[in-house]
Write a structure and sequence with these properties.
Length: about 750
């Protein structure tokens, strides 16, 4: 089929469904119709040369944005020659439109390009970093934030985002913890599915949705010593129990693409990991989208030492199940020869090409190659709309975690406050509030803390401000001004922490403290004796042990995006009651890492009476703040847990109930958390695992009943023989305000039961 032929097929298909044009859903069904799609792609592929098929598996970056090493080739020219099928880091509808037009009009078959980009936490309206958003435990709100990102990105010509990052991260040294949903597989899975729903909606051919990409497959978060790109060596069991569930949840939610990880896993780089890609993802999970590598990761296999040269790298990668090469140019340069030499079967290339074409088809690009990028004022007007900012504001408020509030110092009473000092590098900062991987986020969209405080307090409260010091370095010249400001004020608010690029890619740290110069300033201001509220800004858990001991109030404000200032001001002055809960453990000291709530008991659990038990000589085993921790301006009391029955049968359920009493005079939201411990297993089981939660609003001075259903699926794991299921025996069930909940109630499972792997209820 030449281009005219392709247009002819399109014409017939469009005419075929013209009677349904008034009913959008029906038209979309037509375009999503599998047999119809197969017919179309079969027919197209018979016209394609081997080079053109390989071309569909090639992705190159444009020069608009740089997120890795830049290539020299002219990818538009190559795309016109049918050698490139997708482009990333190209921005603006206008630019993309022109590029698409060149390729559609000048290439032999006129196959449209895909346009990808890292739309991670917002496009122009910037939301909190994903790690921050996860602290909301609010799936609906997270889904909406991804929806907004998709709407804005799609209005600007993009049809593919490299998000969500669903890597479980248990090591705060790893900067990319900022991009994920924390340390827990269950919560991470629910969030992954919500993100996919948000980006992709229910219909990919809807112009306001984009392809999502679950990344980085797999176990990238388990990099040794938290050093980015480093080796990963974990057991198959840990891989399946901890790292894979969010990827499977994304698959079940219909994610269109996966991105391989940079790391090796058990000696094989993930971009050539047949077990991960062909066996688990495509065969066991039945994933029918396409797999793209991470940036130049095929090429990097030579450095890994798993192949001798780039050609071999390409062969290993394509044979393992990779469908698209990001930026290495290796498929483009070597794959044809590999096929000719019989190193890669042509059928394998055909399969990869088909998967890519299917996604283009599902997006509706064959129906209209310009549907995303055609200049459209109505769509453009949605970018940075007031509705989007309102959602970013709500998301930012929900992401804030109150870590300490001694003697109810907070909320500050704005009616009675005559003076306040705002000190620290984040005080009036716009860019740094955008957070890691803000990509297209614009600093000018950010309302700073200072601006928001001024608005909230009006002219009757005097605000003294001083930056005091920079994020890092040893310049103390601003200390005097900061101390003077603190001395004049009734209360001091310090805006400290990490610059945005201290988190994200290639941003591992061996000190996960507040940087030293800032710590010193905090200690100096503390000496003034003024009450201090510490507003923390960071992409990872920090070791703030000294601050926790000495300062009366600490608020975890992460990097909250465009509406950071207003959200923080709402919390500080009590116009919003914080409800966020940590999704990764904050250690007391770095030497405790890895430390997460769902560790194993060991053969010698800690016992203060017995020296030879698991412990450190110089620090307790306890974290500073545990997983699930976060305070509120309300106080919640939990009753003892009751069960409607103590015996669970494989096809039955147990209802666990608790009364949660808001004993304060303020309405508040609480994340009520359910944990389970399997006391004896064919392999050892964690001391606790999150298996449910409910975020509930509880009016002041009111008690509510919260009920959870527990079923056999909640007890399943990868058993000794690597089958998935639950084992009969005793369990402990806990319901509480965080993972440190102590009193468990016993129940038993009456018999063993097989369960569909990775079932999450
Ligand atoms: C490398 C990162 O690891 C990945 O997350 C990102 O999507 C790509 N670069 C593209 O920018």
């Amino acid at each position: 089929m030449n281009k005219l032929g392709l247009l002819g097929v399109l014409f017939l298909l469009v005419c075929g469904c013209s009677k349904a044009v008034t009913d959008k859903a029906v038209v979309h069904n037509q375009w999503n119709d599998q047999p119809e799609m197969d017919r179309f792609i079969d027919s197209l592929m018979t016209e394609m040369t081997l080079e053109e098929k390989i071309g569909q598996t090639v992705l190159f970056a444009s020069w608009w944005d740089i997120t890795g090493p830049v290539s020299e080739n002219d990818f538009v020219d190559d795309a016109i020659k049918g050698k490139v099928g997708a482009v990333f880091n190209a921005l603006t509808a206008d630019f993309i439109y022109r590029m698409q037009k060149e390729v559609v009009e000048k290439s032999r078959l006129g196959i449209p390009l895909l346009f990808g980009y890292d739309v991670i936490h917002g496009y122009r309206t910037t939301f909190p970093t994903p790690f921050a958003m996860s602290a909301s435990w609010d799936l609906d709100q997270i889904e909406k934030s991804c929806r907004v990102a998709a709407v804005e990105a799609a209005a600007d010509g993009l049809n593919w985002t490299f998000a969500p990052m669903v890597d479980i991260a248990r090591d705060p040294r790893w900067g990319r913890i900022a991009e994920g949903a924390g340390e827990d597989a269950y919560l991470g899975s629910l969030i992954a599915a919500a993100q996919v729903r948000g980006f992709q909606g229910t219909d990919l051919s809807d112009e306001a949705t984009v392809l999502a990409c679950a990344k980085h497959f797999a176990a990238y978060g388990a990099a040794q010593a938290g050093r980015d790109y480093h080796t990963v060596d974990i057991s198959e069991r840990v891989l399946r129990d901890v790292y894979l569930p969010p990827f499977k949840a994304a698959c079940d939610a219909g994610v269109a693409t996966y991105m391989t990880a940079f790391n090796e896993l058990d000696g094989t780089p993930c971009s050539a990991h047949e077990h991960l890609l062909n066996d688990i993802l495509k065969e066991q999970w039945g994933f029918d989208g396409f797999v793209v590598t991470d940036y130049t990761s095929i090429k990097e296999m030579v450095n890994h030492g798993s192949v001798a040269n780039e050609k071999e790298a390409g062969e290993a990668s394509m044979n393992a199940g990779v469908d698209m090469d990001m930026q290495s140019g290796i498929f483009m340069n070597h794959l044809k020869q590999s096929v000719e030499e019989g190193k890669v079967k042509e059928a394998t290339v055909n399969e990869a090409c088909r998967r890519v074409l299917e996604m283009k088809y599902r997006l509706g690009l064959f129906e209209d190659p310009y549907r995303y990028c055609r200049p459209d004022e109505d769509k453009q007007s949605k970018i940075k709309s007031p509705e989007h900012f309102a959602l970013a504001h709500e998301m930012a408020r929900k992401s804030i975690v109150l870590l300490k509030n001694e003697d109810h110092l907070m909320p500050l009473n704005k009616e009675q406050l005559n003076s306040i000092a705002l000190i620290g590098p984040m005080t009036d900062e716009q860019k740094q509030q955008l957070g890691a991987w803000h990509t297209t986020g614009q600093p000018e969209t950010v309302t700073t803390i200072l601006t928001a405080f001024k608005e909230k307090l009006g002219s009757k409260t005097k605000i003294y401000t001083a930056k005091g010091c920079d994020w890092e370095g040893d310049d103390r010249s601003g200390f005097a001004e900061a101390l003077a400001a603190a001395k004049k004020a009734e209360v001091v608010v310090m805006c400290m922490g990490e610059r945005e690029n201290m988190g994200g890619e290639a941003a591992s740290r061996v000190h996960i403290d507040i940087p030293l110069i800032q710590k010193e300033l905090i200690r100096e201001v503390h000496k003034t004796g003024k009450p201090i509220v510490l507003l923390l800004h960071n992409g990872r858990p920090l070791t703030i042990t000294w601050e926790n001991e000495h300062l009366p109030a600490i608020v975890e404000c992460w990097h909250l995006g465009s509406m950071a200032g207003p959200a923080i001001a709402d919390v500080v002055f009590g116009d919003y009651n914080p409800s966020g809960k940590l999704t990764a453990t904050f250690p007391q000291h770095l030497g405790q890492v890895p430390v997460h709530y769902n560790m194993k008991n060991t053969g010698r659990p800690y016992n203060p009476e017995d020296h030879f038990t698991t412990r450190y000589q110089d620090c307790s085993n306890d974290p500073l703040y545990c997983f699930g921790y976060g305070l509120s301006y309300s106080s919640f009391e939990y009753s003892a847990v009751t069960l409607d029955t103590n015996t669970l049968t494989p096809d039955g359920k147990i209802t666990a109930s608790v009364k949660v009493n808001n004993t304060s005079n303020v309405d508040g939201e609480e994340v009520v958390q359910l944990y389970i411990r399997d006391l004896v297993g064919s392999v050892t089981r964690p001391v606790k695992e999150l298996k449910g939660f409910q975020k509930v609003m509880i009016p002041a001075n009111t008690a509510i009943d919260v009920n959870f259903e527990v079923r056999v699926e909640d007890l399943a794991f990868w058993r000794k023989d690597m089958s998935y299921g639950a084992e009969k025996g005793e369990f402990l069930l806990f319901i509480g305000t965080n993972s440190d909940v102590e009193q468990g109630i016993k129940f038993e499972l009456s018999s063993d039961a097989d369960v569909e792997p990775y079932t999450i209820r």
